[in-house]
Amino acid sequence: MSEHSKEQTFALLKDSLDEAQISVRAYDTKAQFVGVGYIFALNVIGDIGRMANDPGSGDIVTIVIAWLLVILPIALFGYVLYPMRKSAKEQTSDGRSHIFYLHPDRHGSSEALIAAAESCDPVDEIAHELLQISILRESKRKRFVTALASAGVTFSVLFASQLLASAGTL
Question: Which residues cross the membrane (predicted)?
Answer without folding.
Answer: 60-82, 144-165
